[in-house]
Amino acid sequence: MGLMKNFLNSSAFALACLLFAGAAQAFTPFVVREIRAEGLVRLELGTLLTSLPLSEGDEINTVSARQAIRSLYATGLFEDVQLDKDGDALVIRVTERPAIVRFEIEGNSKVGGDELDKSLKELGLAEGELFRRELLDQVQQELERQYFANGYYDVQIDTTLDFQANNRVAIKVDVIEGSQARIRGINLLGNEAFTREELLDQFALKATHGRLFQSSDRYSRQQLGGDLETLQSYYQDRGFLTAEISSVQVALTPDRDAIYITVNVEEGEIYTVKDTRFSGETIINARFLERFLSTRAGDRFSRRAATESADRIEVALSDIGYAFAKVTPLPEVDEENLEVTLNYLVEPGKRAYVRRIEFRGNASTNDRTLRREMRQLEAAPFSKSAIERSRVRLSRLPFLQAVEVETVPVPGSDDLVDIVFSMEERPPGSVQFGIGFSGSQGFLVTGQVTHTNFLGTGNRIEVGVEQNVISKSVSGSWTNPYFTQDGISQTVSGFYRESESVIRFSSGFNTNVVGAALTYGIPLSEFSAFRLGAGIDQTAIETFPNASSDEILRFAIENGTKFTNVDLRTGLTFDSRNRTFFATRGALHQLNLDVVIPGSDIETYTLSYRAQHYVPIYRGVFLEINGSAAMIDNYSGDGQVPPYNNFFAGGPRTVRGYQDGSLGPRDTPFNNPFGGTVRTTVQNELVIPLPFEADGKSTRFSLFFDIGSVFAEPRDFDTAELRQSAGVAFQWFTPFLGLLDLSYGFPLNDEVGDEVDRFQISFGSGF
Known about the structure:
The two termini are 66 Å apart. The chain has twelve helices and 35 strands. It is an alpha+beta fold. Helices cover 18% and strands 43% of the residues. It has six domains: 2-96, Ubiquitin-like (UB roll); 100-176, membrane protein fhac (Ubiquitin-like (UB roll)), CATH 3.10.20.310; 182-266, Ubiquitin-like (UB roll); 272-347, membrane protein fhac (Ubiquitin-like (UB roll), Roll), CATH 3.10.20; 353-425, Ubiquitin-like (UB roll) (Roll), CATH 3.10.20.310; 471-766, membrane protein fhac: a member of the omp85/tpsb transporter family (Porin).
């Protein structure tokens, strides 16, 4: 129908010219003394005369009249043109094309945007343009093309014209989209090397399986094109160099509701790599470049492996200053022997230097604080790995949420670049608090004020307060991450704590503790550091003959009730995580040894190990493993470990689903949690990206499996006693409440006497 309309409209011009030609033959040639126009509404006479190949004083005849009509039609401004004679005057009667005063499309929720706007403007359909009736058919064809490409084959398109004063017209297009066709089946023909299932696994489009909320079965021509490219790459990455998709058939069912796709594959033969060589300006010794190749002579040809090898060579060149190096793998094919020689064309360009490093988005952070994290320096040769390492170091700062980096060529120079780090700051301060209730402790309130970027310097300040019916504490610390210019950090801390019958630490005794510590962090490499420090604390305990446990009374009788201890603190840390908060890759390992020096009242040592590891699974899903083990012992003969130093397990940071600190040994005769000298816990979390924030920088959802417990002595360790739980967890770093941490755990092997606490929550507020 549309083609017929176009044909008729196209013929109108020719027909008009022929008709006038016949009328022009009746003209007796005459000299035009005046030119008048009739039918002009929006146009001026001068506009018409500029396109007319006649002027006053010219003689008009049949030939010139025909040329005049053609010229006026050619402007596209007129629907009809006629010439007439009035004495010595030439009268031009025209019908103007209306101007489009308004154009709107309604109902097109699935198709639209920039692509549609661009297509319609190219057709000439926009406000202010002249209206041509053939445009309506073109609009319908364009809309149908885009809807059909997305699987909407029963779309209905209706057009309404509203002619208005001054030769104007408003156009409205109403779209009833209908339903998107589903893929009933995908057939593959010609595949022998790989099974149908192997190949269909490469497709994003899937045949419908009646699954709830399935969207992969919705047909899209664009997605199908992407899947076909993926399929061809799958073959070419496995030696089938000449593999191609010979044809694709898309069959629509009569009810236009379902689609069957048939793909014909021509696999070809398997090609092997005959040799590899380098051409162009290699800069680096060829033998050294071979270290970056993943394909050797005799291997199956793989286009992906060749591309990855080229990328690694580009990175190696960029690390020595060639910021714009380009390496192109050029397969030289021997079809007779089914062999390929991979020729890597190296185009290093000029060696680049960094002119300036800029920071954007750091409203609260000093440039100096950020510059000390730089591994790429200004005026130094460009190094891609150094720049990336600088970006990772910035990302790991607790007050930055996201960091992106861009290399910008300097205008007018072919060897200078600027490095621009764009960042999004996280609220540097937070007030974290928790509110809870237990039968033993009643209502409790805990709070912690933290500022990770004090005055924009990167210094960290923490002040913590805890208050409930049986205990209260105050703590504070100051950390300067760059106490020295070479990156040695310093932390000064102090605390005071009072507790009355704190079941979490034991049963039936009070403690008063005051202490302070000074700790230094010494960097050993880009990823590792050594911790060295010292601390002092004074502890006083108070027991009660009828309320204290037997274990507490025995300890007080044998060791007294007041203790002063000085300890030395050492530790090794390896940290390759991509960011400190909500990391997604890398690892963290911490090994600590704290020793109370000889001569102190209680001579103990504490050995602990903590590990975090991130294992990518599939498309943003990854496994986070958090493990810890710790033990404390007295090294002075038969000396005891103070009960107030015991380890506890259970709760959000150890084994979720169990009450905080409730697992492990119990005291006598009250059967309350007493803690132990050995603790081991592992938290396994399958982190699943959320659709509204796939990068996981401020939210995290996970399925977890926790296992762990506490034991009185190392010899008491028994894997059968480890408690297990599974559940779901959600964390959100909110703009106003700080970190919101929710978990719901199901104890898997709880026993009689275990204190279960399935739903656990903590939250805070940021500033």
